[in-house]
């Protein structure tokens, strides 16, 4: 003969079984398809889109040029650095290779920061790099949140920018980010 606890447990088990049968979620094929995932990523990307602030740069030839004029023509690889930072120098070497490979499709903008910008320009010249060195006002450093170097930002055509990279990206990572901008 069943005692009262057993009857209650048996009743609860039956209720759970009935609820499980009626409310069991079926597999939604669409939720796992690559098209749905890609669409969700696109929506997420648009919702978190950051537009690059427009700034005035002094080009290597001395002309003033608006950053917006650059990124409205081609994607921009924007790099803030200093010659005293070993990470900056490692990233420069990687960006130089990328500049040689993608320089016709991407603007490479390197901006030395700090009191030793003359030393930084001399370093670029001494290494024989093709990377152009631009100058800017301190306001740009504030607008882009540059508090340390190196800082690398990729700006797609139209001004959508990535989050700042504050670590050294290897060649594969730089190539990946550039190819993403060129799509």
Structure description:
The chain has 183 residues and is an alpha+beta fold. It folds into two domains: 4-47, no CATH class; 52-182, 3-Layer(aba) Sandwich (Glutaredoxin), CATH 3.40.30.10. It has seven helices and seven strands; from the N terminus they run H-H-E-E-E-H-E-H-E-H-H-E-E-H.
The string of secondary-structure elements, in order, is HHEEEHEHEHHEEH
Tell me, briefly, the overall form: elongated
Query: Mind summarizing the main beta sheet?
Result: 3 strands, mixed
Report the CATH superfamily of the largest domain: Glutaredoxin
Mean pLDDT: 88
Helix content: 40-55%
Distance between the termini: 74 Å
In order across it, which strands form the biggest sheet? 5-4-6
How many helical elements? 7
CATH class annotation of the largest domain? Alpha Beta
Number of DSSP strands?
7
CATH structural fold name of the largest domain: Glutaredoxin
Proportion of beta-strand residues: 5-15%
Task: Tell me the structural class.
Answer: alpha+beta
Q: Report the radius of gyration as a whole number of Å.
A: 27 Å
Task: Kindly give the count of domains.
Answer: 2
Spans of 5+ residues with little confidence (pLDDT < 50)?
none
Q: What is the architecture of the largest domain at the second tier of CATH?
A: 3-Layer(aba) Sandwich
